[in-house]
Amino acid sequence: MKAAVIVFPGSNCDRDCAVAIERSTGARVEMVWHGDSDLPDGLDLIVLPGGFSYGDYLRCGAMAALSPVMAPVKAAAERGVAVVGICNGFQVLCEAHMLPGALLRNAGLKYVCKPVALDIVNGQTRFTAAYQGRREAVMTVGNGEGNFFADDATLDRLEGEGQVVFRYQDNPNGSARAIAGIVNPAGNVLGLMPHPDRAFEPDLGSADGALLFQSVLASA
Amino acid sequence: MKATVQIFLKPGVLDVQGKAVEASLHGLGWPGVREVRVGRTITFDLDGADKAAAEAEVKAMCDKLLANNVIETYRVEVE
């Protein structure tokens, strides 16, 4: 498997993502600068990492969504390449209209950083197949603007079409319907606020994140 | 020309900053304050002389970058 991690100015989980993917799957990982207008050939996975791209100026992910690299990322997604946006990466995917909805300031106004238990709502996706029917995963969240919002019609559609992939058992940030992660209708673009890249081996408190990357590997 | 763009969360979208400011104002002795909304104002100078054309351009900037139509509304003034 071949993967790319996109590096925006202000990304701070880009190395974490690269290490997590390498150790979970053995994949070769290339780091791609946000100003590049080409991606490496033959990618099976593109990850938009967590962090504070462009200092979270204006809105989280707003500027990153318009950076040059996003044109080939969108094109790759349309070809069916797996794309995962983690935390700030999820915000970027929403701002780029690759996923519906938006991430608002946390309902409790506080930055929340802790392990969270997630229900795996859809275990049939390219990102959850390796959980093999498990209903629960533990990963860490670290966000101040992780409060998922979409209008009711959109939320109903997400639920009805199986696009809700992860749901918080104990909603840490006020997210609509406790949604922690969603996929696009084609099922190849995933955005989630919890960090699989901070939960890929037992020494980190949980190895459940590794299964997410291994799911992509199995589908590659 | 000078452009002023005001951006607010849409009605119905929870404005947690507004709620916190409202609670503080209540605590400071203004119990009659309600529906506080915190927005942002963006101002800039813009080349050109046609006001209608400038307004259309600024609206395009809002739709492209300055506002997120999923959660926000905006108001544009050009003078």
UniProtKB/TrEMBL annotation, chain A:
It is found in: Cytoplasm. The keyword Nucleotide-binding applies. It comes from the Bacteria. Keywords: ATP-binding, Cytoplasm, Glutamine amidotransferase, Hydrolase, Ligase, Nucleotide-binding, Purine biosynthesis. The keyword DNA damage does not apply. Transmembrane segments: none annotated. One of its GO terms (molecular function) is phosphoribosylformylglycinamidine synthase activity. This is Phosphoribosylformylglycinamidine synthase subunit PurQ. It comes from Caulobacter ginsengisoli.
Automatic annotation (TrEMBL), chain B:
It comes from the Bacteria. It catalyses: N(2)-formyl-N(1)-(5-phospho-beta-D-ribosyl)glycinamide + L-glutamine + ATP + H2O = 2-formamido-N(1)-(5-O-phospho-beta-D-ribosyl)acetamidine + L-glutamate + ADP + phosphate + H(+). It is an enzyme of class 6 (ligase). It is found in: Cytoplasm. GO terms for molecular function: phosphoribosylformylglycinamidine synthase activity. Its EC number is 6.3.5.3. Keywords: ATP-binding, Cytoplasm, Ligase, Nucleotide-binding, Purine biosynthesis. Pathway: Purine metabolism; IMP biosynthesis via de novo pathway; 5-amino-1-(5-phospho-D-ribosyl)imidazole from N(2)-formyl-N(1)-(5-phospho-D-ribosyl)glycinamide: step 1/2. Pfam families: PurS. Part of the phosphoribosylformylglycinamidine synthase complex involved in the purines biosynthetic pathway. Catalyzes the ATP-dependent conversion of formylglycinamide ribonucleotide (FGAR) and glutamine to yield formylglycinamidine ribonucleotide (FGAM) and glutamate. The FGAM synthase complex is composed of three subunits. PurQ produces an ammonia molecule by converting glutamine to glutamate. PurL transfers the ammonia molecule to FGAR to form FGAM in an ATP-dependent manner. Belongs to the PurS family. HAMAP family: PurS. Part of the FGAM synthase complex composed of 1 PurL, 1 PurQ and 2 PurS subunits. This is Phosphoribosylformylglycinamidine synthase subunit PurS.
